[in-house]
Amino acid sequence: MKRQAIMVAAERRVLVGLGARAYEIVIRQGLLAGVGKDLAELKVGRRYAVIADDRVAALFGRQLLAGLAAAGVRAELITFPHGEAAKNMATVAELAGRLARLGLDRGDALIALGGGVTGDICGFLASIYMRGIPFVQVPTSLLAQVDSSVGGKTGVDIPEGKNLLGTFYQPRRVYIDPEVLTVLPEEEMLNGLAEVIKYGVIYDAELFRELAEQRAAVMARDLGVLAAIIERCCQIKAAVVAADEREADLRRILNFGHTLGHAVEAASGYTLAHGLAVAIGMATVGEIAVEQGLWSREDADALRGLLQAYGLPVLVPAGLDRLAIKNYLKTDKKTVAGRPFFVLPTAIGQVIITDQVEEALIDRVLG
Ligand code: GLY
After folding, report:
1. pLDDT above 90 as % of the chain
2. 47, 247, 291, 339: the active-site residue
């Protein structure tokens, strides 16, 4: 009991070491209500606009705004419709108009309250509104907490593809409250868990082992265990981003399972959730690594077993058009000169990046 109380009270901090643009990720249960107090000290802006979708605003808007008001921080809530369909330039233009009508200027700042879509839209808006104003992230999905709120990738979709417009623009701070995960829908939880397992494979064998051992606690959403896992993922992401902010080299390892995963997701007409597609992508490129003699069958099976233990799929759905998947692979924005690159594991915790994968082998693993 005592140990649990200490874990609950603990605050965890992770530094993203980017020199003059370095920032902290703060992780604490109940932090949502304390963001105002922290911002009153950090003074990112004189006034804030909280950007949230309608669903997240209804769930957490009042709690965040109450904390801001109690700390004497002036803030307005601006909402937009939930869902990936809103992640476009029209939403950005609409939100920018709202900021302008509120009279927000370069001395003010934005707060992204929500999942990956909100973080991407709000970060993009912050990077271009009046040629750039500061922003902070308050991620409310597991995926956003372990991945998209950290590292400064922002963007919106256009009909020709997802995230084709965007910027690298770092937040001033990331506030993570694991408590918000207690109301996260199951599918959203799975989206995040796929990314968590990814970190184990690309960087951290110990995390991979812990995920196997702690499965029951994670699935039961034990907040102490989740906070420790989120911290570890943020440490890995921070180390990778600090070494390669603009994805020239090392950062590409974060795309393990994503090249194929995105193609599978697109070929499904985006009916398959991102995390499920990434899980299929990781298991499938694992087979490529085994076939190329880079990875052991035992490790590949351990990955498949872990994904399945968490309820994630490992096979490309039979009904999906293989040709469509291969066409999407060729148009992926990470593809150079028609050759998709793949992140292939060589051990649990180690990967290489290669564009040397024969089409016949891709055909074989797609089944
Ligand atoms: N989600 C991959 C990255 O931030 O680079």
Report:
1. 92
2. 247
Nearest CA among 159, 179, 2 for reference residue 85: 159
Q: Are residues 262 and 230 in the same domain?
A: no
Q: Is residue 317 part of a domain?
A: yes
pLDDT, tens digit, 9 for 90 and up, residues 232-272: 999 999 999 999 999 999 999 999 999 999 999 999 999 99
**Ligand 1 atom, smallest distance to 240 CA:** 5
Q: For a ligand 1 pocket test, name from 120, 148, 245, 252 the mutation site with the most ligand atoms within 8 angstroms of its C-beta.
A: 148
Closest atom of ligand 1 relative to the 241 alpha carbon: 5
Helices 186-203 and 205-213 sit at what angle, rounded to 10 degrees? 140
Query: Domain of 181: which CATH number?
Result: 3.40.50.1970
Buried b (16+ CB within 10 A) or exposed e, 307-327: beebebbbebeeebeeeebbe
Q: Is 50 helix (H, G, I), strand (E, B) or coil?
A: strand
Q: Indicate yes or no: pTM above 0.85.
A: yes
Domain that holds residue 123: 12-235
pLDDT digits (tens, 9 = 90+) for 54-113: 999 999 999 999 999 999 999 999 999 999 999 999 999 999 999 999 999 999 999 999
Instruction: Provide the domain count of the chain.
Output: 2
- 231 and 308 inside one domain: no
> Residue 138 domain-assigned?
yes
Q: Which of 200, 235, 270 lies at the terminal end of a domain, its last residue? A: 235
Q: The tokens 């702690």 sit on which residue?
A: 214
Q: Which of 147, 191, 259, 353 to mutate to test the pocket of ligand 1 (most atoms within 8 A of CB)?
A: 147
Question: Does 195 participate in catalysis according to the annotation?
Answer: yes
Specify whether 82 is catalytic: no
Does some domain include residue 5? no
> What's the rounded Cα separation, in Å, for the pair 105 and 266?
38
Are 274 and 216 contained in the same domain?
Answer: no
Q: Which residue has the CA at smallest separation from atom 3 of ligand 1?
A: 254
Residue 119 lies in a domain: yes
